[in-house]
């Protein structure tokens, strides 16, 4: 158990004084800030957010229709905590870690009823525990004491709680245990169970934060190729509606090479979460070949679920991520969308009648955002292992205007920026990440990895692609005025090369079985093939071949088929040969 | 039930009253004025000794001596299958002179959220008969797909066309095999289902539309016989604005009952969401809340989500709720908070375009910014046709390219463009003339729609079709059309 219960004292229940949507005030409630309380006769879960004299303000995580003054408020004396232990993977939670499948069977209806609580992990299930320490070993907080095969692909490491005093192992044994049974005792008398609790608003401790040097390989060409994210890095995906934020997030959740994925659907669509629930168990993890769901934990607080739980779901997600990080895993957390989270803060803030900051958002918006993103990083854990949390936050700026407060405050923190563009989306260029506006500040620190693991000249080839795309951007302005045919031949050819970069390389079909995942090697080879075309084409041009003839060779349009080619190594090799011979035939 | 004569303040649509017993949040209130008129309202804020009440019918006639009764329950909608064919006002009372409604159940209109775990992912194609929707932005059962329009556009005609024509093809055979609870009692509905796939029960929620618009809808419903399978909720422009906040909830509660209890496939048309949001703003202002963007309340996203998210399918339940909300974008600006927040909640949007309308295209749907997020799983082999996705992608890309060239051609003229560019220009024109402009009365099957798509694409050189699988090109590409175009060009 966490420290919250250590200091538990008998606390007085309160009486509801007023109700206004998710905000309830109570009198005579003896509570500390952020304590969890049960509100009203139905026992709706809430959290203390303001204390003023005898009046306590509570945000309620459930609908408050029908709740009235005079009803009781019961204090648990604990802050909002999550249950940590085996059983979190392959599950789907709401914003306060109630498992939605358990809620469905407990409520007996497909609609979310009120006042039903359920523990975050199954208290009755038993797990095969194998100790990794023996009696007499000295343990400190955070140390791993044993392992549990949690899912097909993930071994759960049972740890001494971070707030433990430590001590020597008195007794420990292998066997089948529930999460609440003692698996080890220390000589201090402390009993260690598989289940831990941790308050969501508090970061779990770590020794040190390090500079990330390994990329989170996403299998998406534009991301791996141009704007990579590091394991332990932070990224933002802002974009207006319909520009493909959710598909981009889901692609990362499916194909990125993290050990654990925590996917937080914060105030988004119900059907989208259903899609994830239906799709993921059928999909294979490209690294291990095991079902994707066995490394995934979903948190779904859809837009019509209570707004206060939307505010907390981000914290629930990051706390689960930190727990897996402590085991030494690389965790990727997708938050879709942080704007909805910010709006939940705004909604509650306005019900509290706080003085609003920019666009009605509370003045502490920037602080809350940076506090959240700072929980990402590559860490040296207190047990000596290394783990990382990469955070990818979608942002939904109103009207697609990036100058609004949530986008701006996010950009001040994150180091990778994938700007989604509605013009590209309208042309059905997906992923519609704008290559002129996006950036990644991790490029330099990740280059050694790419040189070593993909190709020695990876950074150079990438720079070539960027230069061509930049040049195209400038030329397009002229083309808009005078037409393509008015350009000199070499510039026309540059446009042709850039077109292949856009259509064959940057575009990637998330719904195509093969194209949906592209390894860094394939990403590199595809780029190289386009560069081969470019080199050969410019040689032909120098030899006096007209650009029209160059661009009409049969082989070139085949570049567009590289992404969907299954035997891509062979396909690209042949294609390069074809292009070379066809172009050389022209002169 | 306690009665009070303790009104302390009347302000806009709000009434404040002192109470000596606790009153629940969202509870229903009846206020009887001294003239004997009974007004209904809802508790907006309840605190010890004082409640604020939002009155649906407007606060005219209320004075300090009016009596206030708290009914001790939240707002309920009496639901029954017999509602089909009825016309109700914005608060759910019959206005068609028909018999009194004997409810099967009384359901809370706020409605609980569907557990995401219990949902079933929507992937059944709905054929609306409109090429620009079926071909390019396919609607599926359980989706919420709004129409983004602006004042003076024929969005109502489009909505009526969809309501009239929407079917799920090839469902009839399935229905006979599995005993569908919705069709056993209602003979006429069953017959319709046998003929041409299953039809939808239509719930029509009108919020603040003019009497003339309402008549158009009613005439159309009566003319086509659609009224028998419809429930109509009418809050007209001169009805109280505050009532508009409950009308869509009444409509959706009825829809959920018919879908998830009675097994109907329900199509909900809500018009006009802009009026609904104006009513929200009015209440927010009266309560002196801190306003969000453009004076709309900060909780408008949550509020709209609580309406739009009441669409979908549930595992193990027969029916479905599909929503088509209509909103008129102020100033045709989709960054305005109403379309903006809507777009973030709904699964796509259909744009009605004033420029296309002024050129006389019917329906004037601009396919480029339009989007259906659930399309990819609702089309393809076994659902529509195997070539649907590729054809759609290519049509989008080619149309975008043609439209890009239009700007250029204004400057340099057609002669300065290459032959291929000219083909794209022609393509964009013909796409609008044949694919989009089909008229409000034509009902195209998905096969017809895709064949028109191939006709258009075949006017482009084969090697330009880079989004389509080569085998499909071999199967469908019309060599003769390409040559014809070539011939006429020369």
Report on the structure:
- The complex is a heterodimer of chains A (587) and B (490).
- Chain A is an alpha+beta fold and 587 residues long.
- Chain A has three domains: 14-79, Beta Barrel (Elongation Factor Tu (Ef-tu), domain 3), CATH 2.40.30; 208-443, Rossmann fold (3-Layer(aba) Sandwich), CATH 3.40.50; 458-584, Bovine Mitochondrial F1-ATPase, ATP Synthase Beta Chain, Chain D, domain3 (Orthogonal Bundle), CATH 1.10.1140.10.
- Chain A contains 16 helices and 26 strands.
- In chain A, the strands form five sheets. In chain A, strands 8, 18, 19, 20, 21, 22, 23, 24, 25 and 26 form a ten-stranded mixed beta sheet that branches. In chain A, strands 1-2-5-4-3-6 form a six-stranded antiparallel barrel.
- In chain A, strand 20 (260-266), helix 5 and strand 21 (296-301) form a beta-alpha-beta unit.
- Residues 1-10 of chain A have low confidence and may be disordered.
- The N and C termini of chain B lie far apart (86 Å).
- In chain B, a hairpin with a 2-residue loop joins strand 5 (38-47) and strand 6 (50-55).
- Chain B has 490 residues and is of the alpha/beta class.
- Chain B contains 17 helices and 23 strands.
- Chain B is elongated.
- The model of chain B is unreliable at 172-196 (pLDDT under 50).
- Chain B folds into three domains: 3-74, Beta Barrel (Thrombin, subunit H); 77-378, Rossmann fold; 388-489, Orthogonal Bundle (Bovine Mitochondrial F1-ATPase, ATP Synthase Beta Chain, Chain D, domain3), CATH 1.10.1140.
- In chain B, helix 13 packs across helix 15 (446-457).
- Chain B has helices spanning 131-134, 155-165, 171-177, 181-185, 187-196, 211-223, 247-261, 273-286, 300-308, 337-345, 354-358, 375-378, 388-412, 419-436, 446-457, 470-476, 479-489, and strands at residues 3-4, 7-11, 14-18, 27-32, 38-47, 50-55, 67-74, 76-79, 86-89, 105-108, 119-120, 125-126, 139-140, 147-149, 167-168, 198-199, 201-209, 230-236, 265-271, 312-314, 320-328, 348-352, 365-372.
- The chains are: A alpha+beta (587), B alpha/beta (490).
- Strand 1 (14-20) of chain A pairs antiparallel with strand 5 of chain B, so a sheet runs across the interface.
């Amino acid at each position: 158990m966490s420290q919250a219960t250590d200091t538990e004292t008998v606390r007085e229940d309160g009486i509801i004084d007023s109700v206004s949507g998710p905000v309830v005030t109570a009198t005579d409630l003896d509570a500390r800030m952020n304590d969890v309380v049960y509100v009203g006769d139905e026992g709706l879960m809430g959290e203390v957010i303001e204390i003023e004299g005898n009046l306590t303000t509570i945000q309620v995580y459930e609908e408050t229709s029908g709740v009235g003054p005079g009803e009781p408020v019961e204090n648990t004396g604990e802050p909002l905590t999550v249950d940590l232990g085996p059983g979190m993977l392959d599950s789907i939670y709401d914003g306060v870690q109630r498992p939605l499948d358990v809620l469905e069977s407990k409520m007996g209806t497909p609609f979310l009823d009120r006042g039903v609580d359920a523990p975050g992990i199954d208290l009755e299930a038993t797990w095969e525990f194998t100790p990794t320490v023996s009696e007499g070993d000295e343990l400190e907080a955070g140390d791993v004491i044993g392992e549990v095969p949690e899912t097909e692909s993930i071994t759960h490491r049972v740890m001494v709680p971070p707030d433990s005093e430590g001590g020597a192992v008195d007794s420990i044994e292998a066997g089948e245990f529930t999460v609440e049974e003692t698996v080890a005792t220390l000589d201090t008398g402390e009993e260690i169970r598989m289940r831990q609790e941790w308050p969501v608003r508090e970061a779990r401790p770590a020794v040190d934060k390090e500079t990330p040097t390994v990329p989170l390989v996403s299998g998406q060409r534009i991301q791996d190729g141009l704007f990579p994210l590091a394991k332990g890095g932070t990224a933002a995906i802002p974009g207006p509606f319909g520009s493909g934020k959710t598909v981009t997030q889901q692609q990362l959740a499916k194909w990125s090479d993290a050990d654990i994925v925590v996917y937080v659907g914060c105030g988004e669509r119900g059907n989208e979460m259903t899609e994830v629930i239906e799709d993921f168990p059928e999909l294979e993890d490209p690294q291990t070949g095991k079902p994707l769901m066995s490394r995934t934990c979903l948190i779904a607080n859809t837009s019509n679920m209570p707004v206060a739980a939307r505010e907390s779901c981000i914290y629930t997600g990051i706390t689960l991520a930190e727990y897996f990080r402590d085991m030494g895993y690389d965790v990727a957390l997708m938050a879709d969308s942080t704007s909805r989270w910010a709006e939940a803060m705004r909604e509650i803030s306005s019900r509290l009648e706080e003085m609003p900051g920019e666009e009605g958002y509370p003045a502490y918006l920037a602080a809350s955002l940076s506090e959240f993103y700072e929980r990402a990083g590559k860490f040296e854990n207190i047990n000596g292992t290394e783990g990382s949390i990469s955070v990818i936050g979608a942002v939904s700026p109103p009207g697609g205007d990036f100058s609004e407060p949530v986008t701006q405050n996010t950009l001040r923190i994150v180091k990778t920026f994938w700007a989604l563009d509605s013009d590209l989306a309208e042309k059905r260029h997906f992923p519609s990440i704008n290559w002129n506006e996006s950036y990644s500040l991790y490029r330099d620190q990740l280059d050694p990895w790419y040189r070593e693991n993909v190709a020695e000249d990876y950074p150079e080839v990438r720079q070539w692609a960027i230069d061509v795309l930049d040049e195209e951007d400038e030329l397009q302005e002229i083309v808009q005025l005078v037409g393509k045919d008015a350009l000199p031949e070499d510039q026309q050819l540059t446009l042709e090369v850039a077109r292949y970069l856009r259509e064959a390389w940057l575009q990637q079909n998330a719904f195509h079985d093969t194209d949906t995942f592209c390894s860094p090697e394939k990403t590199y080879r595809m780029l190289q093939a386009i560069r081969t075309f470019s080199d050969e084409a410019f040689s032909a041009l120098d030899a006096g071949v007209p650009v029209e003839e160059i661009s009409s060779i049969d082989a070139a349009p085949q570049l567009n088929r590289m992404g969907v080619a299954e035997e891509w190594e062979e396909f690209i090799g042949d294609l390069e040969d074809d292009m070379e011979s066809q172009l050389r035939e022209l002169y | 039930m306690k009665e009070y004569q303790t009104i302390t303040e009347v302000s806009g649509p709000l009434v404040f009253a002192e109470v000596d017993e606790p009153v629940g949040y969202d509870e229903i209130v009846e206020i009887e004025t001294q003239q004997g008129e009974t007004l209904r309202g809802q508790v907006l804020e309840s605190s010890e000794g004082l409640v604020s009440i939002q009155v649906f019918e407007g606060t005219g006639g209320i004075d300090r001596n009016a009596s206030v009764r708290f009914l001790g329950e939240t707002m309920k909608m009496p639901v029954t299958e017999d509602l089909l064919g009825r016309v109700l006002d914005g608060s759910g009372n019959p206005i068609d002179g028909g018999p009194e409604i004997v409810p099967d159940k009384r359901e809370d209109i706020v409605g609980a959220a569907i557990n995401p775990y219990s949902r079933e992912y929507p992937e059944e194609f709905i054929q609306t008969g409109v090429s620009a929707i079926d071909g390019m932005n396919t609607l599926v059962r359980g989706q919420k797909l709004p129409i983004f329009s602006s004042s003076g556009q024929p969005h109502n005609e489009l909505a009526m066309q969809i309501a009239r024509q929407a079917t799920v093809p090839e469902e009839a055979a399935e229905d006979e095999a599995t005993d569908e609870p919705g069709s056993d009692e209602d003979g006429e509905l069953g017959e319709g289902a046998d003929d041409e796939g299953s039809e939808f029960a239509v719930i029509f929620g009108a919020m603040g539309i003019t009497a003339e618009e309402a008549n158009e809808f009613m005439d159309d419903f009566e003319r086509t016989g659609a009224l028998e399978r419809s429930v109509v909720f009418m809050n007209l422009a001169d009805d109280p604005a505050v009532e508009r906040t409950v009308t869509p909830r009444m409509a959706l509660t009825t829809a959920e009952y018919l879908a998830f209890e009675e097994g109907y496939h329900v199509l909900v048309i809500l018009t006009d969401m802009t009026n609904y949001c104006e009513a929200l703003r009015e209440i927010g202002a009266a309560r002196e809340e801190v306003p969000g963007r453009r004076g709309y309340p900060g909780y408008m996203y949550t509020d709209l989500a609580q309406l739009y998210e009441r669409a979908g399918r549930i595992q193990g339940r027969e029916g479905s709720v599909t929503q088509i909300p209509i909103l008129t974008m102020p100033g045709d600006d989709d960054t305005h908070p109403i379309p903006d927040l809507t777009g973030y909640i709904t699964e796509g949007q259909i744009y009605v375009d004033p420029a296309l309308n002024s050129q006389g295209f019917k329906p004037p749907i601009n396919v480029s910014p339009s989007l259906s997020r659930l399309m990819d799983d609702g089309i393809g082999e076994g659902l529509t046709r195997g070539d649907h996705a590729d054809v759609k992608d290519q049509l989008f890309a080619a149309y975008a390219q043609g439209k890009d060239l239009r700007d250029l051609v204004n400057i340099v003229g057609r002669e300065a463009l290459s032959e291929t560019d000219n083909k794209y220009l022609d393509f964009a024109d013909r796409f609008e003339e044949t694919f989009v402009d089909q008229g409000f009365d034509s009902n195209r099957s998905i096969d017809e729609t895709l064949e028109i798509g191939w006709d258009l694409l075949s006017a482009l050189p084969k090697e330009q079709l880079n989004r389509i699988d080569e085998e499909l090109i071999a199967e469908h590409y019309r060599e003769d059309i390409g040559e014809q175009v070539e011939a006429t060009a020369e």
